[in-house]
Amino acid sequence: MEEAAWGKVPVLIVYADLHIHSKYSRATSTRMDIDEIARFSPVKGLNLVGTGDFTHPKWFRELREKLIPIDGTGLYRPAGKPDSPIRFMVTGEVSTSFTFEGKTKRIHHLILTPSLETADQISDRLARYGDLTVDGRPFLEPRPSWRR
C-alpha cells in the first residue's frame, strides 16, 4: 500500500488484466495455464490477473487444483507458491448474438465472479444455452424474453 498525496488514506495500486484466455480457448497458446500466467504476469507489470474461461470444465478443474483462496478477498494465489505476488480473480467470457436491422451483431460478455463456487453455479446455468466444452469462450444462444 502507498499513502495518498492528500493524506493518510492508504492507496492500493493494482495493475490488472482481467480479460485473458486459457489454453482451452481458440487461437490461444497451449501454454496458457496457471503456472505460466503467474510466471509472466510480473514481467508485464501485473499483480492481478483474471483466470479467464471458468466455464470450460477442464479449465475449471485445473483452477480448483491450482488456486488457493485468500480468505475474505475473492482472490486466489497459485498453489505451492505462498510468496507469489500474483493474485487471480475468477473470470470468464461468453459470446452471444442478435439480429438488428437485418445484421447479426455479436456481443462478448466478460464475467467476474467472487469465487470458484459462484463460477460453478454460473456455469451450471449457462450450460442450458450452449455447449461449454467446445471452447473456453463459448457461444450461447439465450432466448430474449421479448421473443415469444
Task: Explain what the structure shows.
The chain has 148 residues and is α/β, with parallel strands linked by helices. Helices cover 19% and strands 28% of the residues. It has 3 helices and 8 strands; from the N terminus they run E-E-E-H-E-H-E-E-E-E-H. It has helices at residues 34-40, 57-66, 116-126, and strands at 2-3, 10-11, 16-17, 48-50, 67-70, 75-78, 87-100, 103-113. The strands form 3 sheets. Strands 3-4-7-8 form a 4-stranded mixed beta sheet. Strand 7 (87-100) and strand 8 form a beta hairpin. The model has no long low-confidence stretch (mean pLDDT 91).
Shape: globular
Total discrete domains:
1
| SSE pattern, N- to C-terminal | EEEHEHEEEEH
What is the SS-derived class? Answer: alpha/beta
Widest β-sheet, arrangement of strands: 3-4-7-8
Distance separating the two termini = 53 Å
How many helix segments? 3
The largest sheet, given as strand count, sense and whether it forms a barrel, is: 4 strands, mixed
State the low-pLDDT regions, or none.
none
Helix proportion range:
10-25%
Keywords:
28% strand; single chain; four-stranded mixed sheet; 8 strands
Topology diagram in text:
Blueprint (H helix, E strand, L loop, with lengths): L1 E2 L6 E2 L4 E2 L16 H7 L7 E3 L6 H10 E4 L4 E4 L8 E14 L2 E11 L2 H11 L22
Parallel strand pairs: 3-4, 4-7
Antiparallel strand pairs: 1-2, 5-6, 7-8
What is this entry, summarized?
The protein is of the alpha/beta class and 148 residues long. The chain has helices spanning 34-40, 57-66, 116-126, and strands at residues 2-3, 10-11, 16-17, 48-50, 67-70, 75-78, 87-100, 103-113.
